[in-house]
Amino acid sequence: MRPKNYLNNKDILKEIHRSKNTFNSYLAPEYADYDIILPSVDKINRLTIAEAKRNKAKKLSSAEYDRRKGLGEKVKQAECETLHTEITKEELIFRVMTFDHIPEEPGRKKNPKTVADTRVKLPFPPFQHYKFNDEGEIILVGKSHWVGGMDNGHFSLTHGKATNNLAMMWLKLVDRYATRGNVRGYTYNDEMKGQAILQLSQIGLQFDESKSDNPFAYYTAAVTNSFVRVINIEKRNQNIRDDILEMNDLNPSFTRQNQGEWEAAVKRNEEAAPTAYTNAKK
After folding, report:
1. Does residue 275 sit within a domain?
2. Full domain range(s) for residue 62
3. Residues 6+ apart with CB under 8 A from 176
4. Could you tell me which of 172, 250, 214 has the C-alpha nearest to residue 6?
5. pLDDT tens for residues 175-234?
């Protein structure tokens, strides 16, 4: 039996979704989940409806399989399959990425290049949820960064937060990364971990599900950049300390001393190489 990954994209995506929903408002709880992500309402057509049905069928099949496995049943994936042809378009939820409900903030950036640069800074890309009603009309059923009803509610950034499970995933990811051979030997390992956790808390919800389904890679890249940033800062500070020590005729750090010895050895080898080559020709 293969061991379970300590972190996997499926679980991370689930917690990201739950965390984002704490910032959002929906007409009904069941409208919080979505079946497809689109760039605009105009993209809701026959093809995207068919794709949304297949996505929903796959999701329902997986949920039923997990449920029955959790009950201890010996069941095959095929036995839990839901046919997409059995799903009606009225059951589908469409997530549309849009800034229409986000207040403008002129001057936030000196030279705005995108719509996002002209609006209030957000913890994650904004969206709205739509569905078909019984008359076949597309209606708005949810908004991100919102409190209250769709017409009488208001924009808000302060009522949501990351779930405890997602925060634990961030901590676990940083702790595991800190044990890597190329970073675990540094005396300021704890400082690197603290910087990485701070970075994840700032950008953790900015992951855009419409562009990728691999949040693990997104988080790992953020952690790597945080560790490298601290290492570069510490090296720069160490060079400054060593320069001051040498200016005052004191011994610099062992790192500077070893580097000086290594550079001297390389220079001696380079100077000896032409002599050895000349002697060999003679």
Report:
1. no
2. 23-155
3. 6
4. 172
5. 999 999 888 888 889 999 999 999 999 999 999 998 999 999 999 999 999 999 999 998
